[in-house]
Each structure stands twice: as C-alpha cells, then as structure tokens.
Amino acid sequence: MRQALPKIQWRRSRRARRLKLALCPWRGIELVLPPGVSEAQGQAFLDSRRDWMEAAWGRIRRKVPEAFQENAPESLLLAAIGRRYDLQYRPLGDRLEQRGNVLLVPGPATQSNARCRIKPWLIAQGREILPQWVARVGERTGLAHQRVQVRDQRTRWGSCSARGTISLNFRILFHEARVVDYLILHELCHTRHMNHGPQFRALVARFEPQWQSLDRQLSQAAGGVPGWIGW
Ligand SMILES: [Zn+2]
Known about the structure:
Blueprint lengths: L7 E5 L7 E5 L3 E6 L5 H10 L1 H14 L11 E4 L4 E8 L6 E3 L2 E5 L4 H31 L5 E5 L6 E3 L4 E5 L7 H13 L8 H10 L3 H9 L12
The site of zinc ion has 3 residues, from loops.
Pfam families: YgjP-like
Organism: Natronospira proteinivora
Keywords: Hydrolase
C-alpha cells in the first residue's frame, strides 16, 4: 500500500552541494536543489527515493504522533469583538501572518501546532484591545486604575492588585462583549473594595444591574474558550 506523503516543497539553495531531502514532522518534506540541477533531475531524484520517503515518513509518524493529530481548528471566533478568522496552515511558513480575516498559521494542521502558534497572537490582540476597553469602562464609571496587564492565567479571568494594576486573561476575548464589560467593571470596583462584600456588590450593581447573571456566565467553566486553546 502506498502511504500518503505530505506535499513536497521545493527549494533552491546556493549553498547546497547535492540534491537533498529534508523530512520534518512539523514542516513536512522539503527537496533542496543545488545550483545547476534541473527540475527534471529533481523529479527523477524524488521518484528514485519514493520508497525510502514512505518508510521514513511512516517512522516519523510513529515517533512524533503529536504532529499528526487531526481536527485542527479551521476558524477562530473572538466573540468579544465579533470577529471570525479563518485558519489556513502553511507547512513551511515561519511566522503567523494575518491577512484580513485569514490567519496563515505556519506548521502542520494539528491542534497542538494551532495552540502554540495562535496563543501568542491572541495575547498580542488582547494587549491591543483590552487596555482601551478598561479605559472606556473607567471613564464611564469614574473608577480609576493604574495599568492593565494581559496574560495567560491558568485559573482566573482577571484580578486587581492593591496598587490598581488590572490583570486580564487573554481568554476573555472568547466571551461576549457584555461579559467582558462586566469583568472589567468587576475588577475596577476592586480598586475601591478589595473584597466581595456588600459595599463591593452595591458598587457593581450601580453600574450593571444584571451583574449576577453576567457573573454566572463568566464562571461557567470554559466560557466559549475552544478546547484546543485550553487552560
Ligand atoms: Zn473579584
């Protein structure tokens, strides 16, 4: 039985001395052509190495199964800002690129690759979007803060330090805008009351009468965070 091979990428190299095949579980198979070698010679070389490639690729699949997981995500919905992105995978790319609503993800179409490539992009998105969001809620309510941090927190959506630093989990981008509003309001109210006592609750309720149902939405485990992003 012929084994499926990934599409073979061709690359010319001025430094290569001879035709070479590079196999990488994450990047796929690459054929490197030295100067002066024709495409026909390259193709003949590939044909002659077909059996070897299939055997070698099969060994790689068994050795590094995490590079071949299926069900890689095809899109990403950031409910907070009402934007959906299509994910396209490029085996030989080097860095994640955004073109409008398309994210070009370098590496194989697997969940683990998607997570490790897209998480830093999401944190960067959060750093662009959330500090302004906190500033807007601060203006509306008159609640002041010092600064905003956006991080990859394991266990919570947000926190507020005694010095007025608000930390937000980038995963809040997967929640609806109203829930994000509430989380930010909640943390800003902690600049006045560092607890969840009656005065704190009264302050939150003054700006958001529906806060209890929003709080429940927020504490529902995953909160729209896709499983492949994880916690
Ligand atoms: Zn709190």
